[in-house]
Fold this sequence. Notes:
Layout: H1 2-17, E1 21-26, E2 31-36, E3 40-43, E4 50-55, E5 68-75, H2 81-91, E6 102-108, E7 111-122, E8 127-138, E9 141-150, H3 154-165, E10 169-170, E11 192-197, E12 205-210
Antiparallel strand pairs: 1-2, 2-10, 3-4, 4-5, 5-9, 6-7, 7-8, 8-9, 11-12
Helix pairs in contact: 1-3
Amino acid sequence: MKYLLVICCLLWQMSVKAQSFYIYKDTVSNFSISVPETWKYQATPDSPSMKIAGVNVSSMDEKRVPDNFNVAVFKHPGLNTDSAFSLLQKMTKRNRLQAVKDTGTYWVNGEKMRWFEDMHAVPNMNDTICGSYFVVYRKGFVYMITGISRISRLKESRDLFHQIAQSFELLKPGGKTIPQRTLPKAAKSKGVTAAIPLPPYAGGVSVCTLSGEASQQELSLPVSARL
Length: 227
């Protein structure tokens, strides 16, 4: 039995690693991140904070929260990675069900990244979600990666969120670089609607529509999803 469990764990880890990823670059906010090719995305250049949001359509359920993540960037001079990390913990305390579950530190492409995980209640959805939060700080800007999954899917999503976060890279500002915010061609849908929880620092739950009409802006998140 013990060996069977070990084999199952190894197979599951291999399935996570076997996913195809796409390197998304935003040369305006100066970062890149590898995202699963089969997810649906929206780049949100008009948002003052949320720069890209993605959802795993295969995990969608009318009454349940699907796996989703976003990258937010906001200006906050006078911090460092540790103080930005403490700020993020305060910002995400809304509807938190218990104390922070786990924390840690990565060094990602030469940058210090702090992370933690917690659990939240989702109002009006009778659901519990688990959040994985990652923060990097550079030259007055806080970069936050938030991964959200319902508790029943935590095993499947946690390692994937950590893998996505560890692909994050801060780019050197380029003088007259043409803004590049491109998404995988696979980021298309045929009209799916789901309730997606906004990050706890934004508050609320939004009904988001995935439309097959747009080629690169599939996931409609409200502009109100800002800090």
